[in-house]
Each structure stands twice: as structure tokens, then as C-alpha cells.
Write a structure and sequence with these properties.
The chain is built from seven helices and 19 strands. It has 333 residues and is α+β, with helices and mostly antiparallel strands.
């Protein structure tokens, strides 16, 4: 679905028609973070109580910040036996060593190997909560490991896929390059906060989730050269856009700076954009920060973007578009 910001009109095209809306000198920027099989099953060896662990961020070898459910039973000092896919103890133990204000647990894994290298054998794909899979659905898990990953995924670290990138094949990216549209990559490791609804009455009171990002000197240089030459920057996904806008500096003629860091950037109307000229994105959950972001992008610096996006979503429902992670795409231009 194409949303034309200037006219407020829509078009319905196949995804590869995106080629028709770029021109030589433009630049596609995609998030190349790789989803890790971050969901583990565990049990209390004394009580037999079952736990689910979602790894969030590695602090050091075998030391991870994690979400543990049920949290009330995962108090500091509790030891959990990590289970294999057959439901039997794997021989690896996780000890809760700290709890932070968000309720996340820092786990110390007791293992002879690096738990990060064991995830392929022990972990499950951390699909969004609205995609239901039975724990024993091995075939579906195998399919999701391939499908819930972009073809250009590289540095591991995400617990959710940058889903706008799922629409691209290697061949399609080569077609963009052949037509003179450059392709570049940034990295933002997507956390579970991407699914968190906004529950506060005042939007500005919402505490945004923090995510790690990195932009190479090569990508930063390409973005800045593209903008100086009059080319347009297409952000593929809200995560790529968040990296670009977090890295901007310099006022009206802003450029991006290379480097790594953490961002809590919260984008909602009315917001002006320093770097991004067009956005490729999927259809998002209600009451989410992602829906607020696309509403801001639909009318930069104004408040009317919400109405345009809600109208676009109504049109998408009428046209039977698929929503969310494995769904269809929208180009806002």
C-alpha cells in the first residue's frame, strides 16, 4: 500500500513496485540485526515449577539480562535447570543474581560452554505473542527460524525481527542496485519493548524501551553523500528510521554520525524528521509506539498524520491486507 503524504491518497501495488518509486541516487537503509533463538524453557529442580526465559542482552559470557516468567517465583538466588527441546534437563543451570526496576532478571548461566553458542540447540524463535505456536511444533519452529529472519541478517542480537526487511529477497536488492539505488545497512537489536502498548494517559509520560544500535562509517558516509547530492533516504522499517534519526546532528542540514550507542528515541506527532524521506513499514498494533511513529511520519511537523494513517488502515482492512509481523507492507512517501 502506498500512502502519498502530499495528496493524502493511496495506491495498491505488489511489493516489487517499490522499484518504481525509487530513482538513481536514492538510498535504501535496512536493519541487518539477526534474531537469536532467545526463548528457553527451564524448571525449578526442587519444586518442578516450569519457567520461560527470554534472553534480552548479553552482559558478558554466560551472563544475560532476561525476562523470566513467572517472575514472582524467580527471586534473587533461585536456580533454574535449563531444559532441552525434549523437556529434559540440559545440564545447564541459570542463577538469578539481580532484578532491575523493569522486572528483568540478570541470569548467570553455569555451563562449560558459552550459552550463546548453545542457543541453536536449546532455544526457540521468540515469535510475537500474537503468533501462536504449540511448544512441541518442531516443524513450525524450523520454518519460523528461516522465515522470521531477513535474508541480509548478520550480527546476532534481536529478540524480534525487523519485519519490514522480510519483504526483500537478495535478487530484489540487486535490482535496486542495478537501477542506481544504493543499499546500506545499520544495526538495531530489537527488544521486546517493540510490542509494548502505551498505557499512560499522556503520551509524553511513556517510558520508551532502550535498544542498542550501530552505524558504520561506510554507511554514515553513504547517507551523507546521498543527501548532499539531492538523493532521498528510504528507511526500511521503523527500527532503521530510529537509528537514522537518533544519529542525526546539525540542524536543518543534518547529517548522521557513525558510531554505536543506545537509543530511547520516542517519535510521535508533531515531529519533524532530519534524515528520512520515505518509510517502508508493516501494519502495526493499536496503541503502540510504532503506530505513533508512522502517524508522525505521515505529516512531519504536524498533528494531522494520525487521521491519514487511520484512514489508510481502514482502507487496508477493507482491501484485506495482512497486518503485523508476517503481514503486508506500506510505503509512506
Amino acid at each position: 500500500m502506498l500512502v502519498h503524504r502530499g495528496s493524502g491518497t493511496f495506491e495498491h501495488r505488489q511489493f516489487r513496485a517499490l522499484l518504481d518509486y525509487t530513482r538513481p541516487g536514492d538510498l535504501l537503509v535496512l536493519n541487518d540485526s539477526k534474531v537469536i533463538p532467545a526463548r528457553l524453557r527451564a524448571a525449578n529442580p526442587h519444586t518442578g515449577g516450569k519457567f520461560e526465559i527470554l534472553l534480552l542482552e548479553e552482559n558478558s559470557k554466560n551472563n544475560w539480562w532476561s525476562m523470566v516468567r513467572p517472575g514472582k517465583r524467580a527471586r534473587t538466588g533461585v536456580r533454574l535447570a535449563v531444559l532441552g527441546k525434549d523437556g529434559t534437563p540440559s545440564g545447564i543451570t541459570a542463577v538469578v543474581v539481580e532484578t532491575n526496576e523493569e522486572g528483568h532478571r540478570r541470569l548467570q548461566f553455569e555451563a562449560t560452554s558459552d550459552i550463546a553458542s548453545d542457543l541453536g540447540a536449546l532455544g526457540e524463535v521468540p515469535l510475537p505473542p500474537y503468533i501462536e505456536r504449540a511448544p512441541a511444533a518442531a516443524a513450525a519452529q524450523g520454518e519460523d527460524r528461516e522465515r522470521y529472519q531477513t535474508v541480509f541478517a548478520n550480527p546476532p542480537g534481536s529478540v524480534a525481527a525487523p519485519t519490514a526487511g522480510l519483504h526483500f529477497t537478495s535478487g530484489l536488492l540487486e535490482e535496486f542496485r542495478a537501477r542506481g539505488t544504493a543499499v546500506a545497512f545499520v544495526t538495531l537489536h530489537v527488544g521486546p519493548g517493540t510490542f509494548a502498548p502505551v498505557k499512560v494517559e499522556t503520551v509524553s509520560s511513556h517510558r520508551m524501551h532502550e535498544e542498542r544500535y550501530e552505524m558504520s562509517g561506510e554507511t554514515a558516509g553513504l547517507i551523507n553523500r546521498t543527501r548532499r547530492a539531492g538523493g532521498r533516504v528510504f528507511a526500511v522499517g521503523t527500527t532503521a528510521l530510529r537509528v537514522l534519526e537518533s544519529s542525526a546532528e546539525g540542524g536543518p542540514k543534518a547529517e548522521v554520525r557513525a558510531g554505536s550507542g543506545r537509543t530511547r528515541i520516542f517519535i510521535y506527532p508533531p515531529r519533524a524528521f532530519a534524515i528520512v524521506d520515505a518509510l517502508v513499514t508493516n501494519f502495526h498494533l493499536p496503541r503502540s509506539t510504532l503506530l505513533m511513529l508512522v502517524s508522525a511520519f505521515a505529516a512531519p511537523g504536524e498533528s494531522r498524520g494520525r487521521d491519514l494513517i487511520l484512514r489508510a488502515y481502514a482502507e487496508a482492512v477493507a482491501q484485506r491486507y495482512r497486518f503485523f509481523s508476517y503481514g503486508d507492507a506500506m510505503l509512506i512517501i
